[in-house]
Write a structure and sequence with these properties.
Elements lengths: L1 E10 L4 H18 L3 E8 L4 E8 L2 H16 L6 E11 L2 E4 L2 E5 L8 E6 L6 E4 L1
Antiparallel strand pairs: 1-3, 1-4, 2-3, 5-8, 6-7
Length: 129
């Protein structure tokens, strides 16, 4: 079983691109260096809101990720974020299909970033418990 840290983020008007860039360049590398990191995804819901999911091996590691992100976004990001709410829960299962590739389509550097995370046959579902 994995544990998930779910963050609901509301940025100030016009600040979403800067928030996403800061997440990609500062928070994600920080998470990757923390023990128990499994994966990360962020979904932009609107021009001012996003939902982020990070996966961890233990509940304590997921809780530590909250502390790490609060430190990251406390420095200078107060001008970017109106509100952020983070919660930890267990993920009884995680499923994906096909070739899992991490992609930052509009990477902060302006270049597309592709990183192979795992390889499966395109129609084979993979469940992690």
């Amino acid at each position: 079983m994995y544990y998930t840290c779910v963050a609901t983020i509301t940025t100030k008007h016009g600040q979403m691109p800067d928030f996403l860039r800061k997440t990609e360049l500062e928070a994600l590398p920080l998470y990757r260096d923390l023990p128990g990191f499994v994966g990360y995804s962020i979904t932009k819901i609107s021009d001012v809101s996003a939902i982020a999911f990070s996966f961890w091996q233990t509940r304590d590691q997921a809780k530590h990720a909250i502390v790490a992100s609060e430190k990251t976004f406390k420095l200078g990001a107060d001008s970017l974020i109106d509100r952020i709410e983070q919660q930890v829960g267990n993920a009884p299962f995680v499923v994906f299909t096909g070739d899992l590739t991490a992609t930052a389509a509009t990477g902060a550097s302006g270049a597309k970033t592709d990183v192979k995370a795992g390889v499966n046959t395109p129609s084979t579902p993979v469940a992690v418990r």
